[in-house]
Fold these 2 entries.
Entry 1:
Amino acid sequence: MSAKVQSPGPTPKMALVVHSDLSVISNFQSALSEKGYVTIVARDLPTALLAVTQHYFEIAIVSSRLEEGGDGWPLAGVLHLVFPRAFVAVISPTEPDVLTLQSAINYGVREVYQQSMPSPEIVGAILAQVETAPATRPSRKPRVQ
Amino acid sequence: MQLWSANILSTLGIYLVSMVRKRSLLLVDDESSILQTLRLVFENEGYAVITADSCAQALEILANGHKFDAVVTDLNMEKEDIGLEVARAALRLKPKPAVVICTGFASVTNSRAALDLGVDYMAHKPVELQGLIAALNRLLARRDRGVRA
């Protein structure tokens, strides 16, 4: 009996957007979609954590404030731990200060963007950095039937 | 089941390697009391420690082909923010060590520079030792698993 190797085909690039504001989520979703990313969205921590268990993300964009100020940071840290090669960005409502920048370093966040910056610009800036140092994903082995 | 066994063996292997080989650490600070205290602390944690009391000395050590698992540097030494030069040189090494900056003079400018460089951890002086040790151990455990620290 001979084994037949089947190519799994291209895997879609995945992005996660976690923000409590639906309009912000929608703007990111369309900006990422234009660049060929399939976007999973979450408005709270439990939904975001559920998504983490089900997908592999190349990009994660997380609000620093989900339900309370600063509670997005630990989630960003978790995303960096689970997807170490992903580009994890945090959206901050204010201009990043010393503590914000240090939180970014210590949680493994690659960049902090101000919420006032338009979503397509943020996505463009992220992709420019991702393309400079391409994120690698776990290789998907061909299935043997 | 086989995958599960392979994962256990791999984890055990990493653990045994880290037990046999001492992790190497370059400590850089121009205050000798801090340098000696951190040296004692990290040697006690099982690290092989090399110290440098200036940025210039650290850059010389890094240029001489020494390999380090981690580099912990002060920020203000000969000049303000010159520790960023140590971090920059360390981050060019292959394999890349975990790079930690300790400072009592953090600003938006130097924190932004550290983030852009890809520094792995920034600690405030006076350094909370248990926090620093835990952060370094966590970064090195990830590095051992082949993930960018």
Entry 2:
Amino acid sequence: MTPPGLRAIGKPWTGKPWTGKPWTGKPWTGKPWTGKSWLLPTVAVAIAIAIFIADTVTELEVAAPVFYTAVVLLSVRFCKRRGVVMVGIGCIVLTLVSDFLTPPGSSPETGFINTIISLLAIATTTYLSIKIEEERTAAYEARAQLAHIARVTALGELTASIAHEVNQPLAAVVINGNACVRWLEDQPPNLDEARLAVGRLVKDANRASEIIAQVRTLTRKTSAHNELVNVNDIVRGILTLVDGELTQHAIALRTELAEDLPQVRGDSVQLQQLVLNLILNAIEAMTQVEEGSRELFIDSARTADNGVRVLVRDTGTGLASDNLDRVFDAFYTTKSEGMGMGLAISRSIVEAHGGRISAAPNAPRGATLQFVLPAGDAP
Amino acid sequence: MSDRPPIVFVIDDNPSVRQALDGLIRSVHLNVQTFGTTDEFLQFKRPDVPGCIVLDVRLPGLSGLDFQRDMVNLGIELPVIFITGHGDVPMSVRAIKAGAIEFLTKPFRDQDLLDAIYAGIERDRARRHTAAAVGMVRGHYELLTARERQVMQRVVAGRPNKQIAAELKLSQVTVKVHRRHVMRKMKAKSLADLVRMADRISNATQTA
């Protein structure tokens, strides 16, 4: 059974899919991403009052209520489905009320017909607005679902190494527990050593649970869409997951994470997915190169305009300079296996957070991918 | 020499496992030295005491199994105990065939590991004992003159003095003198003792 949200995938994405447009408008909750949330409702109410006054003072045959459609259209920007219906009903009520207050003019029949037309216009606009809102929600859900599938798929590829990563601290827990018992059974019992062993045990158990928490976060379908996050924490969290993968492929890891980073406002799960995508891409590119040392370099820094820049550099197959723009297109891939979705989803995530992402080849080999995100509220 | 306390070398890239093994092995009053990579281990100046290696199969760069193979070329004769997070049968077969003491999958029973460690140390102790004995015998052998060596070869082959004298174109008295020198220099108590020593030297020469 195809989930309803997936309907939209096939068609709209084959053309020029991730232009970033649909998400920058109303990306997460239906509320404007930035700016003041009270502004639009206030404007809408002001317009409604103005129309009501104009409608009431002018004669009945002046079809002022038609302009209530503007209020309905505006309400789509800040209301959900129910809200839009309420606004529509409100406009109809206002129209009828002002009809009673308005002195009948020279031609009451024309006034009556104009009122009917106005009411029909408001009702139709409300109906169409609701449809638009529904479409938008469906498109958003489809994207969220696809992103979720991509996350789960990425994790699926990591299963073996994640299992290994969890198994290591668990093995250490068992060994430490055994060691502790042996220290206690010593004659006389060595309490200091036993205490140290338990200390290590607790640390290792926490480490295992951290990895599991990280996996659980990434498999979550929804998350807080709008929270302040530390990009370094995101990078470190993902590194706990890919540690085993790096070891397995003999990839050296080097990080330079700036400690004075401003926080970023956004969806932490999506940002984790973004970092995971870039790192998995880098690992995959490096496993295709046999000779030479493999190094993954990750660095984060504060940009001049108080944003956050994250850079992921590898020594892999690299990018041909003529297709730098295309790497972020959906279904564009240089790999034998792979859908070509990773970087496309990465770009859509970056753009939804008001940032930008770019790719560049490396000398002597490899690629550098970097993204910049604007800072959230001042800490 | 074999009375000196043995040492266990642990090579595992995971710091948690490394620290845990360090604690466990110390808890049974054995000396332990841990390393994150095989390179660190190779750079370490190993004391001249019996020991064994606890080696993780999955290491950055060279795998533990490859390192086991390389150890022979590097002249490291320490017994190896493998530990692994994800062991499969071919892997363990390869390890045991190459002479590993044990192949343990994490998490393992501590007693299994410690038993393997004791067995490894015992094996190394025996090997060192033999090596020391061979070394001593060889040292004695070095002291023999060319003629005495010729006589010794023929004596341990079971030839009578008369035949040796004929082969080397010597008098029987001279052969007897050489033979006495050989017995004294080799510190052999009997002819059987001398034969065993000759065996040791030739075995060691063959395996080296």
